[in-house]
Design goal:
With about 425 residues, the protein is α/β, with parallel strands linked by helices. The protein contains ten helices and 18 strands. The protein is globular.
Length: about 425
């Protein structure tokens, strides 16, 4: 194992809660090693402790509300105790799930039962008299930057890849990477595959970036990348690999509860302000050499891939396609960088500016980049520009794999993108 100044380890595939991370960070700050050994099982299943749902007037206590309750027919009942509220809405990312009014009974318990939901990891919040709030009876709370929501898993064959199974699990460690630009270490999460500690094998590496306003906790917590990779690897669908999930802001030390209060995104970066030259120096100059030094990697371009969502897709486009001497695969998830605007011609012109030789010899380009994976949600405004981009790439004889998924600009789309992209990596 590498010599890590901070190590927060997950051995079960379970997602980390912010409270657990903060407790671990506190232990580290006190000089002790912090290791989280978490139980196996369906950590996202919603079988909360059985509680009474009696509705006699004024007898329902908020602490005894059962929510969410996944029913046998895949409907989901959500409940919240708010006796003084005049209106409570559900905002879920399932079909027709936004702005749905809940019903109040005589005791002050509000409830709503959805139509049957397809097996999926869904997200939702409540709105109580116009104020966005969480379902405090659901312990599954996820964060993306400064945005919080609850999650619930509807089990079924399509969603098994999102459920921690009784299989060998990899490890997720939080480490600190020296930054030349910041003159201080910056935090990244590193997933190593099952059996890494006991073997001498060297592994390929996927560098996986979050989006605007997010941070290094996005993929391991909201994206449950470690659970997905465990399941794909044990099924033989993906090659065992290391997955590095850094803070994609070159000028940010760490997530807000570790690095201190900040705006989201930090000043000067994020949507419309990303410094791709600085990102290139951070990734190619600092991150890749650190990972190759401290982890057992196959340290060549054929065994490195760079992928990211939204802002991370923009970084991937501008770094991976430019630096095909470093990376042999790219994953561009829900990118807005190909949409024409006053300052951006969009489409193929974006790639031509980054990599002028990209289209000169399509056969050579296809040998250098395998795969070029592009994805987007079917309700994402970026869909039209990415449809056009992939059509034009194919017309120029550039191989790319293009996937669309039901959803908007959201983690539901990006988790499925990882499920489909990871098995394509490092196969040739």
């Amino acid at each position: 194992m590498p010599d890590l100044k901070e190590s927060i380890v997950v051995r079960s595939g379970r997602k980390l809660s912010r409270r657990s991370l903060m407790q671990s960070a506190a232990a580290i700050a006190g000089g002790g090693a912090a290791v989280l050994t978490l139980p196996l099982g369906s950590v996202l299943a919603q079988d909360a402790p059985t509680a009474s749902t009696a509705t006699s007037a004024n007898t329902v206590a908020a602490a005894k509300v059962h929510s969410p309750e996944v029913l046998a027919d895949s409907r989901v009942t959500l409940r919240v105790y708010a006796p003084k509220a005049n209106e409570v809405l559900v905002n879920g990312n399932w079909p027709n799930g936004r702005g749905v009014a809940m019903t109040k009974d005589a005791s002050g318990l509000w409830s709503h039962t959805t139509a049957p939901l397809v097996p999926e990891l869904w997200g939702y919040t409540f709105s109580v008299d116009g104020v966005k709030t969480l379902d405090t009876n659901n312990y599954n709370v996820v964060r993306d930057g400064v945005g919080f929501s609850n999650s619930l898993l509807v089990l079924g064959e399509p969603s098994k890849v999102f459920e921690a199974q009784r299989v060998p699990h990899g490890t997720v460690a939080a480490t600190w990477v020296p930054s030349a630009a910041m003159q201080t270490p910056r935090r990244a999460y590193v997933y190593t595959p099952p059996g890494y500690e006991e073997s001498t094998t060297r592994y390929p590496v996927l560098y996986l970036l979050h989006g605007s306003g997010g941070d290094e906790e996005g993929w391991p917590i909201h994206g449950i990348a470690n659970v997905i990779m465990d399941n794909l690897i044990v099924q033989g669908k993906a090659k065992p690999m290391i997955v590095v999930m850094p803070n994609a802001y070159w000028n940010e030390i760490a997530t807000l509860d570790v690095g201190g209060p900040r705006t989201a995104p930090p000043p000067g970066v994020g949507s419309g302000g990303a410094n791709y030259d600085a990102s290139e120096k951070d990734i190619v100059g600092d991150l890749v050499p650190f990972v190759d030094k401290h982890f057992r990697t196959v340290a060549n371009r054929d065994n490195r891939a760079l992928a990211g969502l939204s802002m991370g897709a923009g970084i991937t486009t501008n770094v991976a396609l430019k630096r095909l001497d470093i990376f042999s695969a790219a994953g561009i998830l829900s990118s807005g960088g190909f949409t024409p605007s006053a300052n951006n011609p969009g489409g193929l012109a974006v790639i031509e500016k980054i990599a002028p030789d990209f289209f000169t010899n399509p056969e050579m380009t296809n040998k250098k980049i395998h795969p070029l994976f592009i994805s987007v949600g079917t309700e994402d405004p970026r869909l039209a520009s990415l449809n056009d981009l992939t059509d034009k790439l194919h017309s120029r004889n550039i191989n790319c794999i293009y996937k669309t998924y039901p959803g908007q600009h959201e983690w539901k789309v990006w988790r499925h993108s990882l499920v489909d992209m990871a098995p394509l990596l490092f196969r040739s």
